[in-house]
Amino acid sequence: MFRLLTGSMAYLVLILLAGAAFSMFWGGRLAFQTFGFKFLYSAVWDPVTKQFGALVPIYGTIVSSAIAILIAVPMSFGIAIFLTEVSPRWLRGPIGTAIELLAAIPSIIYGMWGLFVFVPFMSIHVEPWLNDKLGPQPIIGELFTGPPIGIGMLTAGIILGIMIIPFITAVMRDVFMAVPDALKEAAISLGATTWETIGRVSVPYTRTAVVGAIFLGLGRALGETMAVTFVLGNAHEFTKSLLMPGNSIAAAIANEFTEADSPIYLSSLIALGFLLFVVTFIVLAVAKILLLRIGRLEGARA
Amino acid sequence: MNPIIVRRRVANGIALCLSTIATVFGLFWLVWILWTTVVKGAAALKPQLVTQMTPPPGSDGGLLNAFYGSFIMITMAVAIATPVGVLAAIYLAEFARGNRVGTVIRFVNDILLSAPSIVIGLFVYELVVRPLGHFSGYAGAVALALILLPVIVRTSDEALQLVPGPMREAGLALGLPHWKVTRTILMRAATTGIVTGLLLGIARISGETAPLLFTALNNQYWSANPITPMANVPVVIFQYAMSPYDSWHALAWAGAFVVTVFVLILGISARLFFKQESTR
Hints:
The complex is a heterodimer. By secondary structure, chain A is an all-alpha fold. Chain A is built from twelve helices and two strands. Helices cover about 75% and strands about 0% of the residues of chain A. In chain A, strands 1-2 form a two-stranded antiparallel sheet. The C terminus of chain A is likely disordered. By secondary structure, chain B is mostly helical. Chain B is built from ten helices and no strands. Chains A and B meet through helix 1, helix 3, helix 4, helix 5 and helix 6 of A and helix 1, helix 2, helix 3, helix 4 and helix 5 of B.
């Protein structure tokens, strides 16, 4: 009996995941039926004529997450090295906790701070500079042209980057800590510097877990909603510029769900949710598999 | 000195300096965000916050109904997720240790742990809101419970696994049935871990906004009945912050301040509690 009771609760976890996937597929079936594969690559999003394509939100999600990863990975790597190699022992605990607190701050606070503090900062100090210096450059210039209004993909990406630093850092720190001392000591006794020990011993030893940590952060960034909603601008026009308002899957759902007035509009939004769910599931599953190899070392606590 | 050695030492110095700078960079954002929240939030704190309802555009008011709604929904979420989560964790730790089922469930649970919360909101919309036909506080509570559940499963499972095997064997050797061993011995030994997990979980759901947007929605008025749409702090913050009115912005900052302080106190006290209990 007892075993049955506890077992059924455990299976409930499995059922929840399957149920979530199924219910969103079911809710989005109208959109999938109506638009077919065009839903994935059409850039039209027009509630009036009831034409919906997910290209702009998908592009926005990918670009903002890419910016976030570009920022968060080197920073997290640096912080993890600082915490394991550089910092004096008594400072490790407090700084580690402080970085973890970055993960505890609710995402809506990031969003508000982003909108009221960081957006003006970007529009006054950073984006005019980007316009002047990078705008005229060939190829990448297109990414940095546009009015410096502060709202847009670049701002969203930076905030996302800050938000996922603690998740990536926690895993990296844990796996660097798990490198056997004997290996490190061997390198040091051969005359390697600290940096060489990290680069030639620690990183190769923990390679899969480090990649897993990055995927974990990516999974977080893809699905992050509130912070992005505040600073992305909810625009449905396709634009290459990182300084122009854009959209992401999560932000589109959050902004428009309660306004969706026709079944096909609602269904399209749920279909977006289904896409997001599938993609994050894959990314997180890859992360888990990579991390499983290093044993039970996973720092991503809630 | 040998130029190669010089180069290696310089590279080492630069790399370690960069790592220190990265740490300062990370802490810089923490300080900046907290500083903004404290300065703007403390300026907007006033007694009406807990005595008045959320105001119509342009006028003054408080957040009483939002605080109440959040409190009710979080309480219900805890009441739903704790028994389910702890029972599931008991199964994982006691009956499914190291076998295939246990591995799969843990895997899925960890994915739920990091799954985007807005997706949970959509799921509950399909599960509860659509069949009922309207938004409700219950739906919000279910959404929060679904976010809390994997946190509880994960931490309780880990806490139970840490209980030494001989304690189980001692209980079983006395002829106790398995459920009694679990209830009287294992649960007692694992309480610290489970409570820590619960505190961290509550900290997490008290700031969750995305899943409430289309489950509990919001309510400008006093709504004690969870079958109706319910006001809650995160969604009020969202709506007021996005509005063009200064008085609403001030209220949003006040709400943000209260939520942040609450979450950080919970998070830090959970850590301290765990550290103290486990070194005893």
